[in-house]
Amino acid sequence: MNTIFRRLLMVEWSGLLAAIILGAAVLAWLSPAFLTEFNIYVMLRSFCVALLVGFAQMVTLAVGQLNISVGALGGLVAVLAGGMMEKLGFPVAVAVPLAIGIGGLAGLLNGVLTVRTGINGFIITLATASAFTGINLGITESIPFYDMPPSLVAFGSNRFFGFPYLLIAPIVVAALLGLFLARTVPGRHLLAVGGNPQAAELSGISRDGITMLAHALSGALAGAAAVLAVAQLGSAQPTIGADWLLLSFAAPIIGGAALTGGHVSVLGTTLAVVLIALIENGMVLAKVDPYWVQFVLGALILAAVWLNRWRAVRTGMG
What we know:
This protein is an all-alpha fold. The chain is built from 13 helices and two strands; from the N terminus they run H-H-H-H-H-H-E-E-H-H-H-H-H-H-H.
């Protein structure tokens, strides 16, 4: 079984890698602007927030749950972080951890409500998404916070040649998340609960506790994405997170996550976000209507779900 599992991962990664390499080669051939330092910087910069958004959904998919509130929670954390820095004068070193912590607490609320009510996480997070959006708009009245600390704005815009400083954060998060899932007991429990909840409970794993942990992690990752978005934009916009929902599902699913839980891939999700960024960049260079990006993402999700289902059937038959 381990051999089959490893081969499955290799197929997922090799397919995504092949698509990325082929897509990059085609874009480099069609557009001389693709390999310029500035275009690489723009593409990598767009990758930063998207990766954390994908991870935020990935950890709930790991336990067979859904988090519809990812974008709304991100928007709320963004304005709270902006308000702390502009209105309350909190330094970046205080405001950023507090904002991520608030995201984690909001995610934990999702988990507690899901566990205590017994209602599907889809319904719970759909409801809390509306609540988070309402609080966001109530706080800001749709007016952004513009006066962000220069150090945060510089972190969001500065670069070393084509490498944006902003990319440091998602690289560190990806490494830590990979270690957490592969090397720690809670990480392995997360996947065990998603793979077979009944067997996990019989083994002494708290299904409710792991579900709440997954939602808390999801909230913290959405909060981190929101902070990066504020740094990237140079302001705390109430609309941050409004377009995250489709992306949050596209990245882990294209990366090989099982919708029923038990299998997610940090590397697969990362490669999926690279592919999505490549597609978006290619459409910009080709001057294609940006609304087609949504169509392409939807098509990719359908293709990934079909492919994952086909692999599951083949593995079961084997």
